[in-house]
Protein: Nicotianamine synthase
Organism: Brassica napus
Amino acid sequence: MDCQEEQLVNTICDLYEKISKLESLKPSEDVNILFSQLVSTCIPPNPNIDVTKMCDTVQETRQKLIKICGEAEGHLEHHFSSILTSFEDNPLHHLNLFPYYNNYIKLGKLEYDLLTQNLNGLVPRNVAFIGSGPLPLTSIVLASSHLKETVFHNFDIDPSANSLASLLVSSDPDISQRMFFHTVDIMNVTESLKSFDVVFLAALVGMNKEDKVRVIEHLQKHMAPGAVLMLRSAHGPRAFLYPIVEPCDLQGFEVLSIYHPTDDVINSVVISKKLPVVSNGSVVGGPSCLLMPCNCSKIHAIMNKKKKMMIEELEASREEQFS
């Protein structure tokens, strides 16, 4: 690292020390200030920073910081979902009260464009979102603005999160009929996963590499061949906030494209497709780790079996009953 990059990492580590000393991570003036400083420090794109190659001390701090960020994000979503559900009219009309709502609008448009590009215009009938939380904004944005006939099944292990989320959409005559919530550990969901055309995996489901890969392996085992897996990742300093998903983690999937935003959308997006399974239980092909060095304003696409790389400019691009 050069001096500027070292200073950036030191700033992030100093903020971690301050955040770790907070009595609570629930929304408050101190919490809001420190996390705003953390995000503003991490968000400027810097592809030269590779957190996976940093020293063990920094790696340990990063893992702790991701966990803290996940906990704080959960508190923030619970807080605002509770506020939104208190409105007597349709709570979805007040989503702009959530401070990061515009980010979700941008992320939803980005993910929809990536889906459209890689599904050749086909519209998914059934979508699963794993780790939807108390404020399932990705599902809501996609259902209301982009996939207006698609059914969304949201999975979360926290019953209080699903209770708030269900209440949030219950007053909307359209969304409430196309959005369902399931309180379950996704590792216990098997056959049902075959019914989904697209599966979204939230960034904070699997906060370390081992847990993330374990979930991906489970999805690969039970998703339908040809179904799309959309994952959230992180790049550069943003990887201090969220876990990284690499192509090598996606055994049994074909990586279609990876997009690293350069604006205030923090998460990178990885879109992949489950490969067909042959008779002996193995899969045809597999992920390639031969990605080009990151250029944050481009999509990096791995084209089918030829493993050719091309860079394209991205334009600003069976319902089932559950018991």
In short: Residues 286-323 have pLDDT under 50 and may be disordered.
